[in-house]
Amino acid sequence: MNIEREVIISILKLTKDGLVSKEVVKNNVRLPSQNIENLLKKLQNDGLIYVRKNIVEADSLQRLKLAVKAITLGADIENVSSFLQWKEFESMAAVAFEQNDYAIARNLRFKHAGQRWEIDILGFKKPIVICMDCKHWLRGISPSLIKKIVEDQVKRTSALAESLPNPTVKVEFASWNLALFIPAVLSFVTSRFRFYDNVPVVSVLQLQDFLSQLPAYVDSLKYFPKYLTSKLNKGS
User: Fold this and answer.
1) b/e for 104-113, b at 16 or more Cβ within 10 A?
2) What is the DSSP string of 172-187?
3) Rounded-to-integer distance, Cα 62 and Cα 33, Å
4) Does residue 115 sit in the same domain as residue 220?
5) How confident is the model at residue 19, as a pLDDT?
6) Cys bridge to 124: 7, 83, 129, 160, which one at CB 3.0-4.6 A?
7) 25 against 235, higher pLDDT
8) How many CB atoms lie within 10 A of CB 189?
9) What is the mean pLDDT of residues 178-186?
């Protein structure tokens, strides 16, 4: 048994709704008290938790880092993901975008063709706009379901591109000359589908690599180009 992994999983489970006492952590793990005490100090020194008197606390970013740490120590991905709140999952994706110099927008709502649409996360760095649909769980799903998930995200992405210029979409890319809108699906767990109909299906743990490699193969992906500022509007 990996004691550090078990302590981290216990902290993730117990701090899902807030603070927890050290005694509750010790009782939950059921390992030698001094070993757990030492690991709590180590995790605090690593910046993964706060320990104040008898209380253990972890903010959203720390919990995301704890989740990744647990997985690197061999924890089951599905088990770890079940302890993360939905907003924490989205925040983990946002951090990956920002670390690759992408600006982000969350929960973008807009109207097009008489319908209301929403995209979970958009990452944009000229000329690319990645439109992500966040799915907490994708392992073990059927081909027909992944097909529907991808098709729905393609429709959302296409609708966004077609709707622009749109005065209700007040984000940076709306003023670009050219934008390439790329639909994508993001999950916490790894799916057996890495691409479906040229649409990437990416684990949040693979997002950093996906973003760093994207410029090299963007032309092989499904995307919707849109000229947002015409030369005529510039008077040329």
Assistant:
1) bbeebebebe
2) GGGG-SEEEEEEEEEE
3) 23
4) yes
5) 92
6) 129
7) 25
8) 19
9) 95
Longest dimension (CA), the chain: 75
**Is 232 within the bounds of a domain?**
no
pLDDT, tens digit, 9 for 90 and up, residues 76-98: 877 887 888 777 777 778 878 88
Q: Which of 34, 60, 84 is the last residue of a domain?
A: 84
Residue 101 makes CB contacts below 8 A (sequence gap 6+) with 125
Strand order, beta sheet including 55-57: 20-21, 55-57, 50-52
**Spatial distance between the Cα atoms of 158 and 96, rounded to a whole number of angstroms:** 24
> At 163, which amino acid appears?
S
97, two tokens: 């975008």
DSSP E strand boundaries for 39-177: 50-52, 55-57, 103-112, 115-125, 128-135
Same domain, 29 and 140: no
d(CA 166, CA 225): 16
| pLDDT the model gives residue 40 | 94
- Does 235 fall in a domain? no
Task: Indicate if 137 and 176 belong to the same structural domain.
Answer: yes
